[in-house]
């Protein structure tokens, strides 16, 4: 198709200098305008003007220029390079600023024209775009328009126009075709129109194969340049009517954003009928809900019931994740999200739809964006199709209203723009387009959270394409600055600040840049943070903006993330006194506050109001918040609930104003009357309230902060507990506590229960003897004990996440008894999926000097003679193929080994424990991995051993107890020489996944268990039979139980039908799993029936109502330890230190299970207290 450039001579309507803007942006404007001008919507709009406005005698329009204010500090257009735009009345029927076209309300056509006569080249040429730019437009869309010859009027002159662009239609089934005139491009049929796409740099479109291919494989020749044809306009008679001067008032100049004057966004329909007070209005207020906020403790715990239904038009549930192996959506936390025996958060949040709120599922997030899995998916058309088909099922299954995409980011994986291929940009656009086509028939919403960074925007987003296919674009206008900068900066600047290094790191620039790039303003959503970024200053006396910072700020009391504080933590901390709050004199930033070496920036009510007003004046789509659980949703700071979110709704949705004046300001006076007088205290320590049993104090930032326990609980040393377990008040045993959800509370001990376990009785059904002591014993320092070298190892796993538990469940490095372990294995480091090298799993907990710094604290135990290893992997990290990719590639193995040597040396470990679960049988799926995993794993282990032995380091592995996995995944005889020990995980033989009750760790085969290979005795002997050195075999012992929910509470024996996992423990918070200290404490409270195995083949199980749990008690641990000794194998290992009764919660002794192991294997001298747990 030959496209002839229009050569109409036309008077220049104005003198706008296009060279003030980068060509790339200018071209984008041309494309958008041309596309829009030829769309049916714009044609319809022009038709409306033709019909509505009266015919007048003169078409001439007097040029009116509205100059912006001279001072534009911080605006999008700054300095000599980017001049402030003019708003120009251009005719015919349009106003123009630098970035948009809109109807001119003062246009009066003399002669109404038929719609078909709208001419694109004429339209473009009137805005004084050079012919090069028109040619660029033609190159980008060469075959989308067909030339026709029609008459056109210009300034009352008739022009014979030879090239009116008329869209060529298509049907979606036509798929793709070559792009005439552009070998590197192709066209896709989208909603009945051909849309041009581009191949990655250096590739041509191969029409035969339907792919982008090397040029050598493609037959493509570019046509010669089209010939220009010029038509002269005929003269028109002089006008007898005065020219019409526009009376349109210029937009106010208070904000740079008002220079855009975008078209009014569409009204958002809502079916919500909120109770008073209510909010209404066309703007969206989009609220992220995070499922992990449910795990926080006390007043910070956030549940769906805490959502104020009047404050959000849409809720985005964060997050689902992308399965790295299958490339499809998957539930992130099945227990909290979907399990009917867990909190079932999907169902509870989706239920809010009945109140008129739209609920979408968000996919991705920062953590899930690590590595290349999203890139792999979007760059493969077949993978995209599979993803979309699965996403349709996923959304339909769980009842969401749509999908929010939060891949951070195309091309710039986790802000590294060197990480991804350039093809991510068009592939992501194609992915979104295909989702749009699939979602449209369902009426589902499709949105995305996108970057505020200019570099990422340029590299990763095809803005016009995304704008067409997304319902809104949520711009994450926050996290511009943080501790990664090594100097202080504001989390979310509104505009350019005189002390800022970069002109484009602010909200105003970002939003304007998205709109200039082609985003529909009505679809652009401003992100507002309900949190602050915090820093630790290098010098407390240097505390302004850009002050040097040596790292993250101290973690919040509840959010527990260094460098990050929820708004409710900020306002409460400041209210407690001693903080200086600085408000920005330029009005470009929210406040920052400092005290000592702690510094935090955040948005307060005043700044949130200002941002909301900017959103309103720009007429963009609305605002979104991160996140609901971070606002002061419980009004702990004494203003009102949700002060920030309500402020947004007051501006955008007419939510009723409040008389409360929420001001965060410097406080130098005394603390509130509910708190102690200001005194210094040890960070993170606790103390009881002087007179109130339900209250306590927590030391935060060196000062005591007052807190209240949940209803019905009293303070008990380090946590809130049932009153009868405390020494506060009368401790009345008649108090009946409420039952918290979803975990059943322990019931009151039965006062009439006097039944004790009958020692030696086989199969006796007994109740636990209730304790007569309600006071919690205070742990004393561990005694210095030197044990003889018996040759047996006792290997203890330490888990870094146990430090995040609260109260009595919190486990710290200081809780380790050095006498109880010969070796400690720190779990876990993980495998970087892109680099295939070791990486720190939780940098704050593991290595941050301002965090717990657990690596250093645990390795410090080496001075007591304990060997400390780092474990790599674990169940979660074994998901997908990354370990298989590593071991099957000799070059990747070498790279890993070199890195591992540096890692172990850097952090001072004594060696490495491998916990890939499992070669060939990825997460026990033996169809998942290739057969080559088995020999490749051996090669990897051999190469690690060769690197470690000269350094005197240890190399070990945690391995499967399953015969099937052993056979398929391990070359046992070949592995044995290279390992210092082989830790056999002789536990988790049975669990809630079986749908029938079973024991977590049988010692021997049982008459009621069909499989004779699912027991410890068989597993250990099988490893030895296959060639493992017995002296290297380590028996695994569980310090926990597997729990079930029974289908029928009256059917409660082995192999009873179970409908799912048991209720989560109050501290471990994992359905189907209970720490030993949670189990024994439950039994103490009474009501549980404990069954000892009459065959002696397994430990006990216990049930109460529909709850059933199996576990190892002291007696079976003793027997297993004696078997270790009898078999003369290498020793025992435990999972894990934090799961034994390490604080003597159950009143026998500290670490009763671990001490039992040491009594048998290492002659631990302390007398056995004969703990009668069962």
TrEMBL record:
**Low complexity biased stretches:** 246-281, 744-754
Keyword Nucleotide-binding part of the UniProt annotation:
no
> Any idea which UniProt keywords this protein has?
Carbohydrate metabolism, Chitin degradation, Chitin-binding, Disulfide bond, Glycosidase, Hydrolase, Membrane, Polysaccharide degradation, Signal, Transmembrane, Transmembrane helix
Q: Name the SUPFAM superfamilies for this protein.
A: (Trans)glycosidases, Chitinase insertion domain, Invertebrate chitin-binding proteins
**Does the keyword field hold Ion transport?**
no
What is this enzyme's catalytic activity, as reactions?
A: Random endo-hydrolysis of N-acetyl-beta-D-glucosaminide (1->4)-beta-linkages in chitin and chitodextrins
Ranges that cross the membrane: 33-56
Q: Which PROSITE patterns match?
A: CHIT_BIND_II (PS50940), GH18_1 (PS01095), GH18_2 (PS51910)
Source organism? Daphnia galeata
Q: Which Pfam families match?
A: CBM_14, Glyco_hydro_18
Q: Name one GO molecular function term.
A: endochitinase activity
Record GO biological process = chitin catabolic process; polysaccharide catabolic process
Q: What is this protein called?
A: chitinase
Q: Which SMART domains match?
A: ChtBD2, Glyco_18
Q: Which family does it belong to?
A: Belongs to the glycosyl hydrolase 18 family. Chitinase class II subfamily.
Give the EC number(s) listed in the UniProt record: 3.2.1.14
For region Disordered, the annotated ranges are 228-281, 739-761
């Amino acid at each position: 198709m030959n496209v002839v450039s229009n050569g109409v001579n036309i008077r220049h309507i104005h003198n706008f200098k296009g060279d003030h803007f980068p060509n790339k942006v200018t071209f984008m404007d041309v494309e958008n305008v041309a596309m829009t001008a030829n769309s049916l919507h714009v044609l319809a709009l022009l038709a409306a003007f033709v019909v509505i406005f009266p015919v007048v005698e003169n078409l001439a329009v007097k040029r009116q220029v509205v100059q912006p204010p001279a001072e534009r500090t911080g605006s999008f257009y700054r300095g000599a390079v980017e001049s402030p735009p003019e708003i120009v009345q251009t005719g015919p029927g349009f106003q123009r600023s630098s970035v948009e076209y809109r109807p001119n309300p003062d246009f009066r056509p003399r002669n109404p024209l038929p719609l078909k006569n709208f001419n694109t080249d004429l339209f473009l040429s009137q805005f004084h775009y050079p012919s090069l730019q028109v040619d660029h437009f033609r190159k980008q869309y060469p075959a989308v328009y067909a030339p026709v010859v029609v008459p056109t009027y210009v300034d009352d002159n008739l022009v014979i126009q030879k090239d009116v662009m008329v869209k060529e239609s298509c049907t979606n089934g036509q798929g793709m075709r070559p792009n005439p005139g552009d070998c590197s491009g192709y066209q896709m049929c989208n909603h009945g129109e051909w849309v041009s796409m581009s191949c990655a740099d250096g590739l041509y479109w191969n029409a035969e194969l339907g792919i982008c291919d090397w040029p050598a494989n493609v037959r493509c020749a570019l046509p010669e340049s089209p010939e220009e044809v010029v038509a002269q306009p005929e003269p028109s008679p002089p006008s007898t009517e005065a020219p019409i001067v526009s009376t349109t008032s210029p937009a106010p100049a208070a904000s740079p954003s008002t220079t855009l004057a975008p078209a009014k966004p569409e009204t958002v329909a809502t079916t919500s009928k909120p109770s008073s007070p209510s909010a209404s209005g066309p703007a969206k207020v989009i609220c992220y809900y995070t499922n992990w906020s449910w795990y926080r403790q006390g007043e910070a715990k956030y549940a769906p019931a805490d959502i104020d239904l009047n404050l959000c038009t849409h809720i985005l549930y964060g997050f689902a994740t992308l399965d790295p192996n299958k490339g499809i959506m998957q539930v992130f936390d099945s227990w909290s999200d979907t399990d009917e025996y867990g909190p079932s958060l999907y169902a509870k949040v989706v239920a809010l739809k009945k109140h008129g709120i739209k609920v979408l599922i968000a996919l991705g997030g920062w953590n899930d964006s690590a590595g290349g899995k999203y890139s792999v998916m979007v760059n493969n058309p077949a993978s995209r199709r599979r993803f979309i088909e699965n996403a349709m099922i996923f959304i339909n299954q769980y009842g969401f209203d749509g999908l929010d995409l939060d891949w951070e980011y195309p091309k710039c994986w986790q802000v590294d723009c060197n990480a991804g291929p350039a093809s991510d940009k068009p592939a992501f656009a194609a992915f979104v387009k295909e989702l749009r086509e699939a979602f449209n028939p369902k009426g589902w919403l499709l949105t995305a959270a996108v970057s505020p960074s200019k570099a990422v925007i340029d590299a990763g987003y095809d803005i016009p394409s995304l704008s067409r296919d997304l319902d809104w674009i949520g711009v994450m206008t926050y996290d511009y600055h943080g501790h990664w900068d090594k100097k202080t900066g504001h989390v979310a600047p509104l505009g350019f600040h005189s002390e800022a290094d970069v002109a484009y790191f602010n909200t105003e620039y970002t939003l304007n840049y998205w709109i200039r790039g082609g985003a529909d303003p009505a679809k652009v959503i401003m992100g507002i943070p309900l949190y602050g970024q915090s820093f630790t200053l290098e010098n407390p006396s240097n505390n302004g903006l850009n002050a040097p910072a040596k790292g993250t700020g101290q973690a919040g009391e509840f959010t527990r993330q260094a460098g990050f504080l929820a708004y409710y933590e900020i306002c409460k901390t400041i209210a407690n006194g001693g903080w200086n709050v600085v408000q920005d004199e330029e009005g470009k930033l929210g406040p920052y506050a400092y005290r000592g070496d702690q510094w935090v920036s955040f948005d307060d009510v005043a700044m949130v109001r200002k941002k909301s007003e900017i959103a309103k004046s720009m007429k963009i789509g609305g605002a979104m918040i991160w996140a609901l659980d971070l606002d002061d949703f419980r009004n702990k700071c004494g203003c009102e609930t949700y002060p920030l979110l309500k402020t947004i709704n007051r501006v955008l949705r007419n939510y009723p104003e409040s008389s409360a004046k929420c001001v965060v300001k410097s406080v130098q006076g005394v603390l509130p009357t509910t708190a102690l007088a200001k005194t210094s205290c040890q960070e993170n320590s606790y103390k009881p309230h002087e007179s109130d049993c339900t209250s306590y104090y927590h030391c935060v930032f060196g000062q005591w902060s007052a807190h209240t326990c949940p209803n019905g609980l009293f303070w008990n040393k380090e946590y809130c507990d049932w009153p009868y377990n405390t020494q506060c008040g009368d401790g009345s045993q008649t108090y009946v506590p409420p039952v918290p959800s979803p975990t059943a509370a322990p019931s009151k001990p039965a006062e009439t229960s006097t039944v004790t376990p009958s020692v030696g009785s086989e199969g006796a059904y007994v109740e636990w003897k209730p304790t007569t002591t309600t006071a919690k014993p205070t742990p004393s320092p561990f005694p210095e004990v030197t044990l003889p070298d018996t040759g047996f190892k006792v290997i203890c796993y330490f888990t870094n996440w146990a430090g995040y538990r609260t109260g009595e469940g919190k486990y710290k490095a200081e809780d380790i008894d050095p006498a109880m372990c010969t070796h400690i294995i720190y779990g876990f480091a993980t495998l970087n999926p892109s680099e295939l090298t070791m990486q720190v799993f939780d940098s704050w907990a593991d290595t941050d000097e301002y965090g717990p710094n657990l690596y250093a604290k645990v390795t410090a135990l080496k001075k007591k003679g304990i060997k400390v290893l780092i474990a790599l992997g674990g169940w979660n990290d074994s998901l997908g193929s990354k370990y298989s990719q590593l071991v099957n590639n000799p070059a990747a193995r070498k790279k890993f080994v070199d890195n591992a040597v540096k890692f172990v040396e850097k952090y001072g470990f004594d060696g490495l424990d491998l916990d890939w679960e499992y070669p060939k049988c990825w997460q026990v799926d033996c169809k998942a991995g290739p057969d080559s995993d088995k020999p490749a794993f051996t090669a990897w282990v051999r190469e690690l051993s060769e690197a470690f032995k000269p350094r005197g380091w240890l190399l070990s592995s945690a391995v499967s107890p399953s015969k099937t996995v052993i056979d398929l995944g391990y070359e046992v005889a070949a592995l044995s020489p290279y390992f210092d020990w082989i830790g056999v995980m002789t536990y988790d033989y049975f669990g809630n996944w079986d749908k029938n009750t079973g024991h977590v760790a049988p010692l021997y085969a049982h008459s009621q268990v069909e499989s004779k290979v699912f027991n410890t005795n068989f597993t250990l002997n099988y490893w030895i039979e296959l060639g493992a050195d017995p002296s290297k075999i380590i028996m695994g012992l569980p310090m926990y139980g597997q729990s079930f929910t029974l289908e029928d509470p009256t059917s409660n024996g082995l192999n009873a039908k179970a409908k799912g996992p048991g209720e989560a423990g109050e501290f471990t918070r994992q359905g189907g799993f209970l720490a030993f200290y949670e189990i024994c404490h439950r039994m103490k409270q009474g009501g549980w029936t404990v069954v000892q195995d009459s065959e002696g083949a397994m430990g006990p199980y216990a049930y109460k109502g529909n709850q059933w749990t199996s576990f190892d008690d002291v007696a079976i641990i003793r027997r297993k330890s004696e078997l270790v000794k009898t078999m003369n194998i290498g020793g025992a290992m435990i999972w894990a230190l934090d799961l034994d009764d390490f604080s003597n919660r159950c009143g026998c002794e500290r670490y009763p299970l671990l001490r039992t192991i040491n009594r048998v294997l290492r002659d631990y001298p302390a007398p056995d207290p004969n703990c009668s747990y069962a």
